[in-house]
Amino acid sequence: MIAISNLTKSFKNFKAVNDLNMDISNGEILGLAGLNGAGKTTTIRATAGIIFPTSGKILVDNFDMVENKTEASKHIGWVPELPNFEPDSRPIPLLKYYAGFYGINSADAEKDIVELMKKFDIYAYKDKKLKFYSQGMKKRFSLVAAMMGNPDNFLFDETLNGLDPQGVREVRDFIIELKKQGKSILLSSHILSELQNVADRIAIMKNGTIIKILTRDDLNHLGTTGIKIHIKNPDDKLDKVLLNFGQLEYDGYYYMIKNSSNVDPSDINNELVKANYKVDYIGVQNETLEEYFLNMVK
Ligand SMILES: Nc1ncnc2c1ncn2[C@@H]1O[C@H](COP(=O)(O)OP(=O)(O)O)[C@@H](O)[C@H]1O
Ligand SMILES: [Mg+2]
């Protein structure tokens, strides 16, 4: 369980995170969406205990990340946006060192490490120094690192980006596996479609704060963008007819009637036919999550 209340993080006078509130329950995947610079990474770094909040409270399984950082940190696994490890270290000793933080002895740790490195397809590189790891391999390594101590809460910062399609599927399945085990998961992305398939809720972030939280149900009922129409014989009176039904947009081929949620397309069709227009196409256009998101954050 992660509970963030009134989190603010300033860099000089700039509030990268501004009075943010967010809870993630056990067994929940919360998608954190926002354009570059929205404040996702700053929120995640504060929640991981890497940077101190300017103000606000972060609880991880009820341990306060500021007042009881050592204990709170043990309950959270963090996969950074740009994993960066001591370049000259080798994976297994470094992972054992992390495991030691949880009081796990070297032999027990080794068993988990081997299993996880195999699971994430980096076992073949077990003897290589981390500076020889590609960005994708570092990402896989950081997934293994986050699993040390088997914490109940996870922060994945843009973890699905930059993986190949097979990697995306593997990591997504892994995240769902963690959810089934009852873990709380925060997954950030600036790519909405990545969150759409996996998140229970999506929090949309802009200018350092959350402007909207969408539930699974909201995601399935995003509403309509409008009614899309193509007319074979348009003329200069057509606009006037269509404007009776809502706001009008024209992309050079289709007309789109916006704010048309109470309008029945067949009424528009009847009106057009009555005025001797040849209606080639008329249909309701549903809003995609991407459109919804871009409208929210613009
Ligand atoms: N250490 C820092 N010093 C100054 N500004 C920062 C620092 N870290 C982040 N920022 C600024 O805070 C804003 C939010 O950044 P970030 O949290 O990385 O956003 P996101 O992850 O959503 O792209 C950006 O304007 C960024 O430039
Ligand atoms: Mg970021």
**SSE sequence, one letter per element:** EEEHEEHEHHHEHEHEEHEHEEHEH
Shape: elongated
Examine the secondary-structure arrangement and name the CATH architecture of the largest domain.
3-Layer(aba) Sandwich
Largest sheet, order of strands side by side? 6-7-8-3-9-10
Radius of gyration: 25 Å
Sheet-strand content, in percent, reads: 25-35%
CATH class term of the largest domain: Alpha Beta
Bound molecules: adenosine-5'-diphosphate, magnesium ion
* N-to-C span: 31 Å
Class by SSE composition: alpha/beta
Mean pLDDT: 93
Observed structural traits:
298 residues, alpha/beta, Rossmann fold, Alpha-Beta Plaits, 2 domains, six-stranded mixed β-sheet, 11 helices, binds adenosine-5'-diphosphate, binds magnesium ion
Fold topology:
Blueprint: E1 2-11, E2 14-24, E3 29-33, H1 40-47, E4 55-60, E5 63-64, H2 69-74, E6 76-79, H3 91-101, H4 106-119, H5 135-147, E7 153-157, H6 165-180, E8 184-189, H7 192-196, E9 201-206, E10 209-215, H8 216-220, E11 224-231, H9 238-243, E12 247-250, E13 255-258, H10 265-274, E14 279-286, H11 289-297
Parallel strand pairs: 3-8, 3-9, 6-7, 7-8
Antiparallel strand pairs: 1-2, 1-4, 4-5, 9-10, 11-13, 11-14, 12-13
Helix pairs in contact: 3-4
The protein binds adenosine-5'-diphosphate (ADP) and magnesium ion.
